[in-house]
Amino acid sequence: MGAGPIFQLEGVSCRFGAVAALTDCSLAIAPGERVALIGPSGAGKSTLLSLLNGSQTPTTGRVVILGQDVNRLSPRKRRRIQRLVGTVYQQHHLVGNLAVVHNVNAGHLGRWPLLRALWSLVWPQQVQTAAQALAQVGIADKLYARTDRLSGGQQQRAALARVLVQDPAAILADEPISSVDPERSRALMDLLRQLSETTGKTLVISLHEVEFAVKYCDRVVGLRQGQILFDVPTTEVSETMLTDLYRL
Ligand SMILES: Nc1ncnc2c1ncn2[C@@H]1O[C@H](COP(=O)(O)OP(=O)(O)OP(=O)(O)O)[C@@H](O)[C@H]1O
């Protein structure tokens, strides 16, 4: 992987028709950093995350993931890079009527040949890896539980376990705590921080809750109307910066 940044955006703009979701954004994220993306609704946080995981390409500018310019990669190499970046979405995209083990195994699907992938739906593969990931997220006992019988917070943990079996270099989380209560939010953020501390994985999290951004991350990037208003260590975030960021 080398000592360079894990993510690099150089003069990146991203448009959707007439909408400028991001305008001239530059940013570099080093391995192991914990970065929060904050800003008002529509500021471009989700778009920035989708550039970091290669699911979106910029309209102009360069996106470099793990040293590779995503615009210059063959589809196969691009998929390989994308597998090194795991994303947890607010909608977990778990299949409710399957056992948790199958959903966690889905994290392998991009790597497994089709036959093995299909067979894995019938007969769980790599059960130990799935069990280990579930233990890491604190729900080891749910391996064979039906996914839709889990609570919201447990489903979120199962979705995180699915990302962990990918063994990504970085974990991106798009508003992971918006739909859970304060106690679960703290527990999930504790878990994400502990995972990044023990595994050295880079974390990039979009958050609506500034207090969590400040408490759990080392660095805060403030986005407003598609532009980076500030990008500072957490200790340097001030009241004035936040007022300017969220000003109506
Ligand atoms: N696929 C798309 N097609 C058209 N417009 C889009 C698309 N994705 C995002 N946008 C627009 O780009 C802008 C930035 O959206 P984005 O979802 O990145 O913001 P956000 O900061 O994540 O917002 P929120 O906090 O509400 O989730 C918005 O104006 C949005 O409507």
Automatic annotation (TrEMBL):
GO terms for molecular function: ATP binding. It comes from Leptolyngbya subtilissima DQ-A4. SUPFAM superfamilies: P-loop containing nucleoside triphosphate hydrolases. It comes from the Bacteria. PROSITE patterns: ABC_TRANSPORTER_1 (PS00211), ABC_TRANSPORTER_2 (PS50893). This is Phosphonate ABC transporter ATP-binding protein. Keywords: ATP-binding, Cell membrane, Membrane, Nucleotide-binding, Phosphonate transport, Translocase, Transport. InterPro entries: AAA+_ATPase, ABC_transporter-like_ATP-bd, ABC_transporter-like_CS, ABC_transpr_PhnC, MetN_ABC_transporter-like, P-loop_NTPase. Pfam families: ABC_tran. CDD domains: ABC_PhnC_transporter (cd03256). SMART domains: AAA. Residues 7-248 form the ABC transporter domain.
